[in-house]
Amino acid sequence: MITIKKIILREINMKLVEPFQTSSGSIDNKRILLIEMKTDTHSAWSECVAKQIPNYTPETIDTCWLMIEKYLAPKLLNNPIDHPKDVFNRLETNIRGNLMAKAALEMGTWGLYATITNQSLSNVIKGTRKQVETGVSIGIQKDPEALLKKVDESVKLGYGKIKIKIQPGNDFPFIDIVRQKYPSIKLMVDANNAYALSDDFSKFDSYNLMMLEQPLAWDDVYQHAHLQKQLKTPICLDESITSLSKAKEMIDLKAGQIINIKPGRVGGFTPSLDIHNICQENNIPVWCGGMLETGIGRAYNIALASLPNFSIPGDLSPSARYWKKDIVNPEWTMSDDGLMTVPSKPGLGVDVDVEKIDAITVKKLDLT
Ligand code: OSB
Ligand code: MG
Q: Which pLDDT does position 259 carry in this prediction?
């Protein structure tokens, strides 16, 4: 039984080592919402992955703050929890959507449970991998040569998968220059909704891409089914998979062959585990997406990626790809052969640098 007595919300501001551009906009300075949950004896941190603007999903860091403060935290405070697997349903009761806000709290309870029971996060969710494969997501660059330079650096670092962001006008010459030089690297593209079903997709099939991620509307499954029929390249859904039910829809309609699971996007670990399992039963591989997290959110992603059906390298990069100095110790690092170790220590597996967090906190709220 876990009784949460206090939930602390904080906004911190951190600058990315380089701006990250996608088809829906560019980000440089990041506003980040961190959560700390406390019982009488233990505490755990989690991260809300909502962006500052609603250009990925409808949520933002500000809507999440409001939802957590007004509606979600009161469902957890001083209201005992038997097991973190029960938390998602509790947060779902009479509160629609707002999955990133829910996920931040839901995952925090898994972190708390791991801490209290002296187990690693990976162990708590029955992860099987001791190491996970890394991948890098490279933003849209000004020209193909600039992209190639980024890919050169990434290949040298040993990443297990390279994902490039694309949009109409920044697609084929960019993919082409990379494929010419690297005929066999694991390469994929992410369009973040930038295309329409009426566009010509035939060229994508000539680049031996692992997958084409979310080419059509952010909330669409149906049109992706039509597109998948005319494409050999597997479609991977990201934005439109917001629940187990959406994952089933994708599988039934054959709207995609791979799912990018981001625990923040689906409401936390419990729905992530459900999606992982239904995909495994249907021979649909999954991989763990990223939201440019700090080392705190990364701890949860890496634990999740240790599950058996996370068989494709995720958007899991070491701390240095995002931050000059991360807010955890040790920082997340990768080996020369592109692997990250899944911590076996109890709790998140990394220490949170509270002093550094204090120094960059711009807003703080204690809820009791
Ligand atoms: O579409 O996967 C995406 C970051 C923010 C919003 C959406 C996406 C991304 C990424 C970043 O691709 C991946 C990472 O965290 O390294
Ligand atoms: Mg994506």
A: 98
What's the distance, Cα to Cα, between the start and end of the chain in Å? Answer: 18
Residue burial 204-229, b: 16+ Cβ < 10 Å; e: rest: beebebbbbbbbbbbebbeebbebbe
Instruction: Tell me the pLDDT band of 130, cut-offs 50, 70 and 90.
Output: very high
- For ligand 1, whether the C-beta of 47 sits within 6 Å is no
Residue whose pair of structure tokens reads 């005319």 in the numeric block: 230
Question: Does the CB atom of residue 290 touch ligand 1 within 6 A?
Answer: yes
CA distance 148 to 157: 14
213-242 pLDDT, tens digit per residue, is 999 999 999 999 999 999 999 999 999 999
pTM for this entry = 0.97
Q: Do 221 and 246 touch, CB atoms closer than 8 A?
A: yes
Q: What pLDDT was estimated at residue 241?
A: 98
**Cα–Cα distance for residue pair 367/72, rounded to 1 Å:** 11
165 catalytic, yes or no?
yes
Check residue 107 and give its pLDDT: 98
Distance 288 CA to ligand 1 centre (A): 10
For the record, the structure tokens of 312 come out as 């494709």
Dihedral (Cα; 314, 318, 320, 322), 10-degree rounding? 30
Answer yes or no: are the C-beta atoms of 279 and 286 closer than 8 Å.
Answer: yes
